Amino acid sequence: MLRNLFCIFIAGVWTTLLFPVTILVTLLTFDTSTTMWVVQRVWSPVLLWAGGAKLTVRGLERADFTRPAIYVCNHQSTIDIPALFLALPVNFRFVAKQALQYVPVLGWYMTMAKFVFIDRSNHKKAIRSLERAGERIRGGISIAMFPEGTRSPDLAIMPFKKGPFALAMKAGVPVVPIAIEGSGRLMPKNSWNITPGPITIAIGAPVDPAPFGDDREALMKAVRDRIIDLSVELGGRGGDKATTVAAKGLEGTARRRDTQAPA
Fold first, then answer.
1. Which of 148, 151, 179, 196 could cross-link to 230 by cystine, CB 3.0-4.6 Å?
2. CA distances from 263 to 45, 221, 246, 257, 260 (A)
């Protein structure tokens, strides 16, 4: 109980104190890179420390951090976000759900830093959000996304949404598969019940979308299969490779034809 209260207190106070200062500095310098330095080097380490997390990163040598890319990762916990900020030594922005834009302080910071907000309930707006993500990539900024669309309740990797892979094909940038393990046990979905422990992030080799032509599902399966393999290598649950595509408008549920047994 004390650990939970301590973590909530630190997260709230640190965010409330740090982000307004960062916003002010950005307004004075017109440099959004300042916002990322703060969140990667100052904000994230404190949140992981408060939660009792010990972060290990594997596979950094596999990715080319000098060029824009789309980083896709399975999603177990809210603490995945500071873990990825700390793990990836690159200038990137998350694609986040629209509701976060209206959260005081946090939403102001994310807007100032040019995160991409997406309204999954409106297909046309979601497409426009991905177009904005493409603009970030063309400007030299990488994008990070959780293609499951939500946190896994049982830590198994769920079916993916197509958005990140359509974006990769349109922007002509590689997709970097990432697996995270341990975060869901440290801080489960919809819970502030903190259990200190290790978090491990494994970075896979980039996947070039060019050989897949216009076949988004083939690209998505190749990336998802690799994330599942990385998860298993880390001792995680992996996922069902036969259920690749999420049902339209839903997270965590496979598209109907993916769940049907072959005739």
1. 179
2. 51, 21, 21, 12, 9
CA–CA gap between residue 132 and residue 14 (Å, rounded): 29
Phi and psi for 239 in degrees, rounded to 5?
Answer: -175, 175
Three-state DSSP class for residue 71: strand
For residue range 207-223, list pLDDT tens digits in order: 999 999 999 999 999 99
Antiparallel, parallel or unpaired: β 92-97 and 70-73: unpaired
The answer to whether residues 131 and 118 touch, using CB atoms and an 8 Å cutoff, is no
pTM of this prediction? 0.91
Q: SS3 breakdown of the chain: % helix, strand, coil, rounded to 5? A: 45, 15, 35
Contact 197, 6 (CB under 8 A): no
Residue 158: per-residue pLDDT: 96
What letter would DSSP give residue 202?
A: E
